[in-house]
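Fold Annotation — chain and its backbone
Next Lines — sequence and tokenised fold

***
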Amino acid sequence: MADLAHYFMDVPGWFDWPDLYAQLVDTLPSGAHVVEVGGWKGQSAAFMGVEIALSGKAIRFDVVDTWLGTPTETLHTDDPDVRAGRLYEAFLTHTDPVREFVHPVRLASVEAAGSYADGSLDAVFLDADHATASVLSDLEAWWPKVKPGGLVAGHDRDWASVGRAVKAWEAFAGVRVKPASRSSWAFRKPVPVTDWTVPEDERAILIAICSNERSIYRQTAKSLLASLAGGHAEEAVKKHGFQDYAIRWVDQYPSVAAMRDYALMQGTVMGASHVLFLDADMTWPTDLLDKMLRHHSVGMVSGVYHLKQWPYWPVVLDQPFIDPEKHTTEYHYAPQVLDETELQRVDLIGMGCALVPLRITRAFMRPWFEYVLDNCGLPAITEDVAFCARSRAVGCPIWVDPTVKCGHIGQQVIDTPWFRRGELEMRLLKEKRAAGEDVNQMAQLFEATTESQQSGSAA
């Protein structure tokens, strides 16, 4: 069929991504497998079928659709083929010249995804129901089916409903969306790093103390001296096979995200294998370096510290999920790690006391730390949330060492006993609510106690 000519313009539809499909056919090898979700009357399938035929490659192209139309989209419900129940027949008629290269799968999107093995597909293009919840369901269903390095793309990035879903998935999956073709979007699925081992002769550490304040808490100063001075740093570095270390005060930028990126760049210039982030409103145990540097080959590791606000949750979270109403990524706090003595695998940590392998800077592009914006274009989450999501996406394990107990400074140093008290207060509020009592005044009292601790005590 080398003389088969393109005829897709004679087929009704809204196909405006021929360059994306042509690039896929050009770059994918024989044996590749591509799925299109939402075939309509076959305009895009007709183009893809001809491209595959002309390439001479054995690329399988499946088109998934119910061919019933989308009830919430007027362009579908008003279409004569939909009203007459002949949409599938129209698709078959339009793709008949390339039927050898186009394989219809007459199922709903999520149901069809279940019939494909995880990691079996080279690319998926989504152009089905455009409702936010439906696009998110499609992304959730098809993402595991695509190989690392494969492409997940879709149409109508200018639709608000699609844009909300794509933004939500970007934050949840830790990947960056890019414009594709005329009005499409695309995610490239990361290829995970599987080995985070750092040989002894490559180990070097930059200790980055990050501060966007003009002064330093006296508790922090005392803790840094106790943890790093008097030979503590030299002993820990030598004990754990690190060849070099440096300590840098990082305060060049008002944005914490910029400070953290700068620290990683400084570590790269130094030739370090790791950066140990320490925030200048904290305290640490005197054996901090000994405990943290022993984790040089497991990925990213944090000590335990707590929020300064009541009820002082530990800054350790897991089980990310997309809130179905807000379309934002949420996490669960993981206080259970406080009772453990070994490393605990989690999904999100803060950077107040965190050992970060610099290999991560080669796994995804800058900015490594950034504030993800909400649907109003305002910063919705802190810089460490996006960094952890992207680190997970490229295969970096995230851990917490419950034995590294740190303090977070308000007017006083907030630590685990403060959270234990907060737990009791939360339980008391819950019991009184269940008994039908008005607990507003009590809740305000707990929160007001927290606010009185925030004036600070800088030196």
Notes: The chain has a mean pLDDT of 92.
